[in-house]
Specification:
Butyryl-CoA Dehydrogenase, subunit A, domain 3, alpha+beta, single chain, 12% strand, 53% helix, four-stranded mixed β-sheet, 3 domains
Length: 415
């Protein structure tokens, strides 16, 4: 991959998006997919050990400068490029795509706030080391889910979002000019045990429920921060996830970047961005599942001829193709609407996430049917794709709740 241009070298045009897509596809094919298949059977502790293929992936990603896309590229071109990049990463390995995608979240939010406030001090302290990292060791995570609160913390705009019962248990209280954080984030925090920084969603006003939330950027080497063991799970096993504990963690006021007055708006924007990314990644996984089935159907013989010549298989393949392409179209539409509006459209982002994750699950399941018994064997890519897709129906908000959030936003917009 050393011959590839870095992100900063790409032209800011449609041709530039094509070049970036081609470059990331090579990375996904040659580095991500082999690494993910190698990491999949490992114990989660071994996945993150020094010398693991995981760190080769991060180093390649950072060396090529893709982690700095939010800073290096024009916002409009950057959104189009990001959609293409995440699709190709999802085609290669959805679990590693999620890990790489979330790694920049704390730094991207600080950079966005700097553009509004003009105060560059926090950017210099937090973002600059991330941008300068070429080894993939400055890593972010999105710490929102808790042991007793999951998708409900994402239900912005719901009727009980501001009731005390919905307040998260990870909380901060003011102590002079500092904030003191106590609480826990659950084992589902992506990059949780390898992250150097957290974009931490917590509560500072529990009387107002989840609406009393705030957002802090927290370096995870501060006194009082500890981490649990990496989570052992069904799918997306190359994606590190794990608990983070906060025991009287003191942060300066400047690290508390969003207060309750802007929390609901920022949560909507972050959720829209995250769901848009999920839509792109799992549209890629749906396409990868179709590609695997198509190639196998051309090679596998039954009844004296390739199974691709049997009409039942042909019909199934085309149905899979339609689902995969519909997911990609919804993902690209979501990007286009965000460009037109100047910010993510939450209903479109949720529609993309739900459409793509459903497609990935259904297409990977149908692909196993095309493979027959071979598709159930460990070490076969499509078996892993199916497990990865199943996790996506819950990840970043269960689809059922997200659809209710999307519907409520549409109803509010119609008033």
């Amino acid at each position: 991959m050393s011959g590839d241009l870095t992100v900063a070298d790409r032209p800011g045009s449609f041709d530039g998006v094509i070049e970036i897509r081609a470059s990331v596809h090579r990375l996904a094919k040659d580095i991500l997919r082999p690494a993910a298949l190698k990491l999949d059977p490992l114990n989660p502790k071994d996945v993150i050990q020094d010398g693991s293929s995981l760190w080769e992936v991060f180093e390649q990603w950072y060396e090529l400068g893709y982690h700095t896309m939010f800073k290096d590229l024009d916002p409009g071109f950057g959104q189009m490029a990001s959609n293409a990049v995440l699709f190709e990463l999802g085609w290669g390995a959805a679990d590693l795509a999620v890990s790489l995608g979330v790694s920049g979240m704390p730094f991207q939010v600080v950079e966005m706030l700097t553009a509004f406030t003009g105060d560059t001090n926090l950017r210099d302290e937090i973002v600059t080391p991330f941008l300068e990292d070429k080894t993939g060791r400055v890593i972010g995570c999105w710490a929102i889910t808790e042991p007793m609160h999951g998708s409900d913390l994402l239900a912005v705009g719901s009727t009980n979002f501001d009731t005390p019962a919905t307040a998260g248990a990870c909380r901060a209280r003011k102590d002079g000019s500092d904030w003191i954080i106590n609480g826990q984030k659950s084992a589902w925090v992506s990059n949780g045990t390898i992250a150097s920084h957290a974009l931490l969603f917590l509560n500072v006003d529990p009387d107002h429920g989840a609406a009393g939330g705030a957002v802090a950027v927290v370096p995870l080497n501060l006194p009082g921060v500890s981490k649990g063991a990496p989570l052992d799970k069904l799918g997306q096993r190359a994606l590190n996830q794990g608990e983070i504990f906060f025991d009287d963690v003191r942060i300066p006021e400047r690290y508390m970047v969003i207060g309750p007055e802007l929390y609901s708006m920022v949560l909507s924007m972050v959720l829209g961005t995250a769901n848009s990314g999920m839509g792109s990644i799992f549209a890629g996984l749906a396409r990868a599942s179709f590609d695997e089935a198509l190639q196998y159907a051309l090679e596998r013989e039954q009844g004296g001829r390739p199974i691709s010549q049997h009409q039942l298989v042909q019909g199934k393949l085309f149905d899979m193709f339609m689902k995969a392409e519909q997911a990609r179209a919804q993902s690209e539409l979501t990007t286009r609407v965000a460009l037109e509006q100047g910010m993510p459209s939450l209903p479109h982002a949720i529609a993309s996430k739900v459409t793509s994750t459903r497609a990935a699950f259904e297409v990977s399941s149908d692909a196993i049917q095309v493979f027959g018994g071979v598709g159930l064997a460990k070490g076969v890519a499509i078996e892993k794709f199916f497990r990865d897709a199943r996790a996506s129906l819950i990840e970043d908000g269960v689809n059922e709740l997200l659809m209710l959030v999307g519907a409520q936003h549409l109803l509010q917009q119609a008033k």
